[in-house]
Design goal:
alpha+beta; ornithine cyclodeaminase, domain 1; two-stranded antiparallel ribbon; 9 strands
Length: about 200
């Protein structure tokens, strides 16, 4: 399928499902290239050529040790790709002899937004972690912002969570109650928020 206009021609990309074995084969023996790719990605992020919103945690009252995390992101540069990692952590799996974590990665085409790949991602996550360790060993520096600096940044941002809650209230939905409940849950688990987004 193609869409024609006076300025561009777009086509819907083909879609591929890539299992773990193929991911492992693609990464095997390419450690140096992976470290270089990780370094290049962090440089793009530092230059502002990325979108990296907060992660979203799905938690369960009947399985309090478990969680599934949604991590959306977009990267520019020559790659220009959008996507989301959906990674679960179920610690009780270990007792059953299966891995604690499992993940998939969905990639979306930059121009059309269409998904073009769904791939096993726990191997990718482990490889990225190893690449970061290699970067640190080669002299890379990771800087963690102080609590005061995090607050300074947060205070300069628009209160998007409250804007969302207020838009829900206008529809007759308990947006502010939902937002406060979510943030109170984080506070109860000891998460230090950079800003009280529900106030």
């Amino acid at each position: 399928m193609t869409t024609n206009s006076s300025t561009s021609t777009k086509s819907v990309p083909s879609f591929a499902v890539i299992p773990g074995a193929q991911v492992q084969d693609a990464l095997a023996g390419r450690e140096k290239q992976i470290v270089e790719l990780a370094e290049a990605t962090y440089r793009l992020h530092s230059a502002g050529d990325s979108v990296n919103p907060p992660s979203y945690f799905l938690r369960f009252s009947d399985r309090p040790t478990a969680r599934i995390i949604a991590l959306p992101a977009s990267i520019g540069g020559q790659v220009k790709v959008d996507g989301i990692k959906w990674i679960s952590s179920f610690p009780e799996n270990v007792a059953a002899g299966i891995p604690r974590a499992s993940a998939v990665l969905i990639l979306n085409d930059h121009d059309t937004g269409y998904p073009f790949a769904c791939m096993e991602a726990s191997i990718i996550s482990a490889t990225r972690t190893a690449a970061m360790a290699a970067m640190a060993a080669n002299g890379a520096t990771v800087v963690y912002l102080s609590e005061a600096e995090r607050k300074r940044w947060a205070d300069k941002l628009p209160n998007v969570p409250m804007q969302w809650a207020e838009s829900m209230e206008k529809k007759g939905l308990p947006g502010k109650v939902m937002l406060k409940g979510y943030l109170d849950g984080l506070r109860a688990r000891g998460v230090k928020l950079a800003r009280d987004w529900d106030k």
